[in-house]
């Protein structure tokens, strides 16, 4: 059995400025987006992306992630807390970003980018889909360092079960690391391979929706559910799991639409 290292959330300080690990994880995520985006554009030149377009795309994406992710956390998962502490809504450096809110924010940002740059929405989402999972992995590692979003108590013996001392003395699943490996590393490997060859429009986006939705749905069985707007819903599923179902269905519908057109 392991014990969480209880990291200092501040990575380093420069005079009065404190740089937090959570913020560094976002910086790593955005850097990986640019690096992998340039590699992807180079291996698929027929897609018509260049470095300047990637820089603009990142700016839109950052705004979508931050605004959507924070609003999603506030509205979907902890509305009661933020109604009582409205000043905390802006304290994103403390953690608390919803993937589903960030996902909707990014979709809105990509739609706006596509309109302003003469590309279709699906051309944009197909290009960025393989670039997203590494950022998700970085975010989950940030959650682990912050000691938030811990897992459910373990039934039986598990060598890597971890105690989070500020929660209780029970050994729990380190679910943040499960998600970093699943939604991050595994999903990246699948999408990077799948997007290396020409695919029908919308196909890469569809695989992302199905892949993320399925992996997050499974990970929720090992993670202590967030309170959510309705807590634990019918069938014993969490708010996040119910939010994943439309993603999986939408991805399947896109693949079916492509097959019908083919």
TrEMBL record:
EC number(s) given by UniProt: 2.5.1.145
GO biological process assignments: lipoprotein biosynthetic process
Keyword set includes Ubl conjugation: no
Keywords: Cell membrane, Glycosyltransferase, Lipoprotein, Membrane, Transferase, Transmembrane, Transmembrane helix
Function noted in UniProt: Catalyzes the transfer of the diacylglyceryl group from phosphatidylglycerol to the sulfhydryl group of the N-terminal cysteine of a prolipoprotein, the first step in the formation of mature lipoproteins.
GO MF annotation terms: phosphatidylglycerol-prolipoprotein diacylglyceryl transferase activity
Signal sequence interval, chain numbering: none
Regions that span the bilayer: 20-37, 57-77, 97-114, 126-145, 176-194, 201-219, 239-257
A cellular-component GO term for this protein: plasma membrane
Pfam families (UniProt xref): LGT
Family: Belongs to the Lgt family.
Topological category with respect to the lipid bilayer: Multi-pass membrane protein
Residues binding a 1,2-diacyl-sn-glycero-3-phospho-(1'-sn-glycerol): 140
InterPro entries: Lgt (IPR001640)
Pathway where this protein functions: Protein modification; lipoprotein biosynthesis (diacylglyceryl transfer)
Location relative to the cell: Cell membrane
Broad class of where this protein is predominantly found: membrane
UniProt protein name: Phosphatidylglycerol--prolipoprotein diacylglyceryl transferase
């Amino acid at each position: 059995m392991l014990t969480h290292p209880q990291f200092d959330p501040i990575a380093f300080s420069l005079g009065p400025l404190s740089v937090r690990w959570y913020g560094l994880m976002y910086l790593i995520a955005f850097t990986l987006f640019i690096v992998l985006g340039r590699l992807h554009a180079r291996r698929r030149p027929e897609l018509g992306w260049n470095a300047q377009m990637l820089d603009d795309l990142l700016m839109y994406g950052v705004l979508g992630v931050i605004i959507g992710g924070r609003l999603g956390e506030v509205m979907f998962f902890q509305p009661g807390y933020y109604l009582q502490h409205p000043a905390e809504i802006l304290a994103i450096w403390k953690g608390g970003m919803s993937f589903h809110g960030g996902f909707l924010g990014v979709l809105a940002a990509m739609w706006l980018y596509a309109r302003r740059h003469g590309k279709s929405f699906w051309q944009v989402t197909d290009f960025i889909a393989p670039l997203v999972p590494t950022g998700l992995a970085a975010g989950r590692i940030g959650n682990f360092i912050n000691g938030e979003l811990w897992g459910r108590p373990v039934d039986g013996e598990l060598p890597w079960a971890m105690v989070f001392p500020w929660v209780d003395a029970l050994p729990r699943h380190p679910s943040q690391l499960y998600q970093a490996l699943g939604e991050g590393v595994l999903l990246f490997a699948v999408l990077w391979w799948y997007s290396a060859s020409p695919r029908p429009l919308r196909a890469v986006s569809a695989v992302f929706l199905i892949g993320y939705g399925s992996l997050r749905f499974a990970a929720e069985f090992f993670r202590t559910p967030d309170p959510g707007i309705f807590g634990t819903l019918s069938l014993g599923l969490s708010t996040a799991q119910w939010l994943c179902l439309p993603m999986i269905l939408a991805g399947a519908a896109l693949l079916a639409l492509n097959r019908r057109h083919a």
